[in-house]
Amino acid sequence: MTFVHEQYLWLLAGLPVLGAALLFAARRNRRVVSRFVGTHHRTEVFNVLVVKNFVVAVLFTAAVASLILALAGPQWGEVSVEDERRGLDLVYLMDVSNSMVAEDIPPSRLVRSREVARSVAGRMEAAYHAVVAFKGAATVVVPMTEDPVAFDLAMGNLSGALITTAGTSLQNGLATALSAFPPGSPRHRAIVLFSDGQELQDAVNEELEELRQSGIPVFAVLTGTGTGATIPTGDGGVLRNDDGQPVIAGTDRETLRQLAEVSGGAFYEIADANVAQRLASDLNQLSGRGRDVVFREVSVGRYHVFVLLAFLCMVGVVAVQHTRWRRTL
Fold this sequence. Notes:
The protein is of the alpha/beta class.
């Protein structure tokens, strides 16, 4: 079982407080009842009262817990849904971290990535394009558009200066790329990722699940060589670590390959002279000609099960409170 809104599960931590409050109320009720019950029947009345209060507390706590679980959006099981799509929406997810200025791919990894992205966009007929840049954070540089001038201008201005947050968070990049797709669009969707995979900080399981359920493949382009290269600092020197040694910007081929494979996309290397042609050809096959009906597996929301359980628990609370036990309470 998975949850769409896991943050609401923290509310379950408040259940012990709720239980303590119910216990306090039960003790108070016992003192009140003792004032109106004779000593002859006091033990029997207290026994019934303790049992009823316990049952009510358990049922009420279970009802609250069920509502919290329902709020968190529980999911289990999968069902096939049909999508009818035409055309293509592309998000170019561009890594602009410090390692992307390495020059093992001349003139640099980032400059070459921009050139390939422009070449791919020029080969895509009737496609819409958006550009997202990411480092430690991510930002939409240009929203989804069919204007080639806006796209070309955005690509030309891509640099690490767009984002001040250090690091390389692929999770933030993918989440922002997903948000760049227009909601409810009937078009095919895909993400074209340009990155060296260097020092990716986090797991992307949540984003991968959303990509898989939404039918959005990632076409990952590795922007670097296996040997790596130093990172120019712009003043004629190179970036060095605390020991004064040059920092070597490597690559992470397997992370990008796995991302492409799991999402249903493809993996490329920017060192391939035909990468733009191959990538554009695969993307054109994805968009197809005319309408295309595709099926995708989505998780089934089960919140209604817990809402029903909460309702039944509250019915039990009312029944226990209004039913006389042993002709006393």
